[in-house]
């Protein structure tokens, strides 16, 4: 089903009793919401150069809809460039502030 994904729409959807339901986004082609028995996840369903890519973007409770759309756009750009889907997405993780554990 193709719908405009909004926070209100995502919150109103109930978990499925059996299997999964997929709601394709009307705004960003290839971006979707997958609703299962216990989770709601943003996913990427995009056919590029004849190959279908189905990758998880993030769970809905961990990221906002706008951030998920941006992340999916980056993932699609990586695929088109021939890179791995998740290249460059995890570079901004915080490094430990205290690199020396030998404090006296």
In words, what does this structure look like?
With 104 residues, the chain is α+β, with helices and mostly antiparallel strands. It has helices spanning 7-12, 65-81; strands at 2-3, 21-25, 31-35, 40-48, 51-59. It has a 5-stranded mixed beta sheet, covered by helices on one side. The longest helix has 17 residues, at 65-81. The chain is globular and about 40 Å long. The N and C termini lie far apart (61 Å). Residues 92-97 have low confidence and may be disordered.
Ranges with pLDDT <50 over ≥5 residues? 92-97
Helix content: 10-25%
Largest sheet: 5 strands, mixed
Radius of gyration: 17 Å
Helix/strand order: EHEEEEH
Short characterization:
The protein is α+β, with helices and mostly antiparallel strands. The chain contains two helices and five strands.
